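Subject: for your reference before the review

Hello V.,

The reviewers asked for a structural picture of the protein, and I figured it would be easier to keep everything in one thread rather than splitting it across files. Below is the amino acid sequence we used in the manuscript, unchanged from the supplementary table.
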Amino acid sequence: MVPPSKPVIYDTKKRDMSKLLVQYAEGTNLTLVCEVHGGKPKPQVVWFLEGRLIDTTYEVQETQTSTGDTNSITVNRVTLWDLTRSQHHAKLTCKANNTHRAEPPSTTVIIELIIPFDYFAVRPLTVQILGKEKIVSAGKRYKTKCRSSGSKPPANFTWWKGSKQLKTGFKA
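And here is what came back from the structure prediction:
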């Protein structure tokens, strides 16, 4: 039995992500490639996000050297779609396992997010309309409030009816 090499994690530009700090905008997709050389038997190369298994699909690429030896590279490509703030500082780990007798070699990168437009501005996590009536009648007054949480700075609210913005104290 021969252990595989330590996994190397690349981005789509073939940059070694363990040596870089790259920030991604909230809402973008992140594709990373994990490459592992050698190993007998050939390793299973899998991805974990915060300790949870998220991808087990990998392929083995073999090449012949000039001396006739065979080199193998096991590759697993993962895409995280529509990055969210809950993934900010999340640990993404690639592991290469070919035995249960030893801890598999692994490499971890940390997802760094930036928020588009302003690093310090984050959109609300929740928005709720409070005091809304199920049935309303024309000519009657109703009080409705809107509440949000998780935004920084606090959210500013505007009310709309179709494509028309309404003023505070409006009549609809």
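For the response letter, the relevant points are probably these. Residues 89 and 145 are 34 Å apart (CA to CA). Residues 126-166 form one domain.

Happy to draft the paragraph if you're swamped.

O.
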